[in-house]
């Protein structure tokens, strides 16, 4: 897969932006970055699109800025010259797709049925947009189409919102989702960028779904671990289960039979996607120990942070 598309997959959610005035580009980019989504698909529906992309790409180099609603090769040239790193179109125009491929520009054309998908495969693509997602059958349609096209991934856009986002992202053939509910046009026009930041952060937290999984307590030996877990189990009506290296009290407390990571123990934080959580937290200057990472079916399932917090090691775990 293209490197840019891999980055989009790690981000998970692409804000679809319509800008009527290029003066709003910089504050909007700032709001998205501060909210935790350093990415934007700026649609070429308006006269301000090209300049908006140029401003975002130059003033916020950490952002992954692309152009959407690209209908012609001339628009491809303008978008790329302005700094767009990827191209998105509402439908599959073979001429535009071939042109992007020749230029080495990642392109995700719109598809809504198997015939569109087969055209995309014939052109050598491994990622397509699914648009308009909800109106075209939603996740059930994507699942039906994904079955025969095993190596293809989809980026659904159209009708994606905070309520159905995680349902889409839970399906492994979804690369990322495109959405506009956090960057509504009326908020942009009114200059309510603080509200956009808040909605963006809310969307990111919804997508990642952080929850406390369990707390691990370092014990000196097996006997102390049994007593520690037994105390929690007795107080809170939990089942005590002894394993090879620890004793659990329900799913809340893990008493280690010998000292493990962390001065006092460890804290496990569950998330909807370890890969996306790592990408987000690294953008917040959190460091991870990749030697501790575990994988299943190509997806990261466990990883520890490098630094302890309050004497506890912290690790992410896949829900």
UniProtKB/TrEMBL annotation:
The keyword Ion transport does not apply. Transmembrane segments: none annotated. InterPro entries: Aldlse_KDPG_KHG, KDPG/KHG_AS_1, KDPG/KHG_AS_2, VOC_core. PROSITE patterns: ALDOLASE_KDPG_KHG_1, ALDOLASE_KDPG_KHG_2, VOC. Keywords: Carbohydrate metabolism, Lyase, Schiff base. It comes from the Bacteria. Residues 211-319 form the VOC domain. Pfam families: Aldolase. The keyword RNA-binding does not apply. PANTHER family: 2-DEHYDRO-3-DEOXY-6-PHOSPHOGALACTONATE ALDOLASE-RELATED, 2-KETO-3-DEOXY-6-PHOSPHOGLUCONATE ALDOLASE. This is Bifunctional 4-hydroxy-2-oxoglutarate aldolase/2-dehydro-3-deoxy-phosphogluconate aldolase.
């Amino acid at each position: 897969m293209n490197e840019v598309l891999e980055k989009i997959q790690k981000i998970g959610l692409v804000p679809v932006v319509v800008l009527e005035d290029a003066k709003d580009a910089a504050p909007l980019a700032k709001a998205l970055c501060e909210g935790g989504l350093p990415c934007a698909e700026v649609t070429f529906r308006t006269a301000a699109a090209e300049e908006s992309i140029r401003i975002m790409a130059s003033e916020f180099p950490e952002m992954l800025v692309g152009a959407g609603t690209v209908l012609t090769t001339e628009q491809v040239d303008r978008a790329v010259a302005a700094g767009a790193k990827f191209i998105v179109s509402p439908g599959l125009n073979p001429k535009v797709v071939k042109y992007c491929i020749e230029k080495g520009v990642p392109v995700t054309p719109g598809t809504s049925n198997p015939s569109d998908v087969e055209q995309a495969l014939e052109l050598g693509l491994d990622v397509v947009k699914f648009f308009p997602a909800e109106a075209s059958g939603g996740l059930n349609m994507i699942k039906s189409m994904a079955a025969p096209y095993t190596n293809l991934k989809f980026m659904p856009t159209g009708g994606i919102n905070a309520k159905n986002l995680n349902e889409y992202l839970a399906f492994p053939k979804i690369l990322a989702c495109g959405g506009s509910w956090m960057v509504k046009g009326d908020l942009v026009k009114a200059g309510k960028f603080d509200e956009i930041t808040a909605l963006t952060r809310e969307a990111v937290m919804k997508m990642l779904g952080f929850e406390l999984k369990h707390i691990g307590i370092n014990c000196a030996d097996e006997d102390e671990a049994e007593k520690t877990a037994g105390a929690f189990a007795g107080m809170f009506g939990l089942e005590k289960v002894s394993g090879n290296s620890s004793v659990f009290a329900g799913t809340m407390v893990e008493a280690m039979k010998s000292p493990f990571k962390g001065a006092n123990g460890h804290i496990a934080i569950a998330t909807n996607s370890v890969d996306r959580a790592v990408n987000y937290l690294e953008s917040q200057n959190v460091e991870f120990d990749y030697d501790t990472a575990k994988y299943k079916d190509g997806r990261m399932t466990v990883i520890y942070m490098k630094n302890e917090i309050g004497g506890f090691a912290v690790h992410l775990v896949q829900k």
